[in-house]
Amino acid sequence: MIDHLIRVFDRGLRTVAGIHPVTDDIPDAPTTNLSDPEKRRSGSLMRVNHTGEVCAQALYEGQALTARDANVRSSLQQAAKEEVVHLVWCRKRLEELDTHPSVLDPIFFATSCALGALTGTLGDRVSLGFIAATEDQVVEHLDRHIDQLPQGDGRSRAILERMREDELRHGTSAEKAGGLPFPMPIRRLMTSFSRIMTETTYRI
Predict the structure, then answer these.
(1) Quick check: helix, strand or coil at residue 90?
(2) What value does the mean pLDDT take over residues 18-36?
(3) What average pLDDT does this structure show over 40-45?
(4) Is 178 left (phi over 0), alpha (psi -120 to 50) or beta?
(5) pTM for this predicted structure
(6) Using CA atoms, how far apart are residues 78 and 15, in angstroms rounded to an integer?
């Protein structure tokens, strides 16, 4: 357990500090010269998506802390590693758009990690169901942002489309592994939390 806690603490520090493996495998597409308002719009949307990946990574790490089955724990940790790639993509795009990650990322990482650990104590099937429900909402969120990006920002759109593919796969895998379906009231609470994250990190 101590080893897992150290792992999560280290991952949290790296996430907040932006210390991630360098990758050249960033989705790309033709992008026109964006006007200043378009650039700000893209930057705000990508900031939200960066924080969303911070939350996803923290959720997986938190759930892995309290997972009962070793295979489930390993799958969660692997999913968290894949989210690191998304973080790298989003952070790189933020730099290209001359903006920054949200100053609230440390708070969202800690909150999401605690929520993930709490969910994990309810059993692996509940934990997997939580992943499936979360990824469903993430896919819907990405669909909205893909539509809201400036028409000329092909690079950001390509990144979000690749992320969407991966998140959809994570959700499907969780369902196939035996995740319990979450009732609508709980999904609404999850939506409310997501809305708070979206509205705050869009600006800061």
Answers:
(1) helix
(2) 80
(3) 98
(4) left
(5) 0.91
(6) 16
DSSP conformation class of 122 = T
Give the separation between CA 134 and CA 78, rounded to whole angstroms: 17
Q: Which residue carries 């994570």 as its tokens?
A: 170
**Cα torsion 194, 148, 79, 25: sign:** negative
In the block, residue with structure tokens 């790490």: 61
Alpha carbons 73 and 154: distance in angstroms, whole number: 36
Q: Per residue in 66-82, pLDDT tens?
A: 988 888 888 888 888 88
Q: Hey, what are 118's tokens?
A: 């709490």
Across 63-67, average pLDDT: 90
Burial tier of 185 (Cβ tally within 10 Å: 0-12, 13-18, 19+): exposed
* List of domains in the chain: 2-8+55-201 (1.20.1260.10)
